[in-house]
Design brief:
Blueprint: E1 2-10, H1 14-22, H2 24-30, E2 38-42, E3 49-54, E4 59-69, E5 73-81, E6 91-100, E7 103-113, H3 116-138
Antiparallel strand pairs: 1-7, 2-3, 3-4, 4-5, 5-6, 6-7
Length: about 140
Amino acid sequence: MSTLHIRRTLPAPVDRVWSAFTDPEALMAWFWPQSLGPKVTADVRAGGRFRVDATSAGFAVTGVYQEVSPPTRLVMTWQWDGDGMGGDEESLVTIELTARGELTDLDLRHERFASDDERDQHAQGWNDCLDRLPGWLAVPS
């Protein structure tokens, strides 16, 4: 099994970054490009489910929240739904946020990949998503 680990420092307080990952409206605004027509449902509690649809592309990611500890830790399963989107394997995402004044350190771990190639594809995807996040964080809430 292969693991992806991404660390970033984000230009916003921890509560704002937490909202970016847990508020469906926020996720729709930054997670995937708007050209994909993202739709998000999220029941953010341990045992709750989430789904992020890319409606124009015909795929989605789904999962179940394993741990929800606002505003510092979010653990969820991760599974693709759609043609050619990583098969039936379920992986695990852990997001840890550490407040540093007006900044937040993000530590994202995505594990249980069947191959290094699958891990590398997710690294590209996560980095594309996270590259959009500071733009959303900069917009006043």
